[in-house]
Amino acid sequence: MPQAVRPIIAAADHDPLFDEDVAYAETLQAAGVTATLVRYEGMIHEFFKMSGFVPDVAKALGDALGA
After folding, report:
1. What gap in Å lies between CA 43 and CA 13, rounded to an integer?
2. Cα–Cα distance between 6 and 11 in angstroms, integer?
3. End-to-end CA distance of the chain
4. What residues are paired with 38 via a beta bridge?
5. Among 36, 43, 59, 65, which has the minimal tally of Cβ within 10 Å of its Cβ?
């Protein structure tokens, strides 16, 4: 099957769903999908919504847009 999208999984290390992010990335990779897991230290769940308050979110947004 051709790959149209290369997923990036943005995992905040203080997110209660962090382990699920890692497991999802591993599952995709085991299935042959070129998935990238990026861990954002110091971030919490839904940190992408905080770009107006947390300057480090700009890097995460840039990573996602460049994927």
Report:
1. 6
2. 16
3. 20
4. 10
5. 65
